[in-house]
Amino acid sequence: xxxxxxxxxxxxxxxxxxxxxxxxxxxxxxxxxxxxxxxxxxxxxxxxxxxxxxxxxxxxxxxxxxxxxxx
Length: 71
What we know:
Blueprint: E1 4-6, H1 8-11, E2 16-18, H2 21-30, H3 42-57, H4 63-70
């Protein structure tokens, strides 16, 4: 595997590694997924939109309030 490392001085954001696309794709393919993805239904999207509006209006309960109400 041919790998080229570009110095941090040149990239200004840390070292940059260049490798062939096929090797990059193989690395990505074998990398485990950390967060599984799911498709949202129309009802899910509406519920999220409604929740965001309620949050913006200040209509929510904090954890402390919930614990106090449940005690």
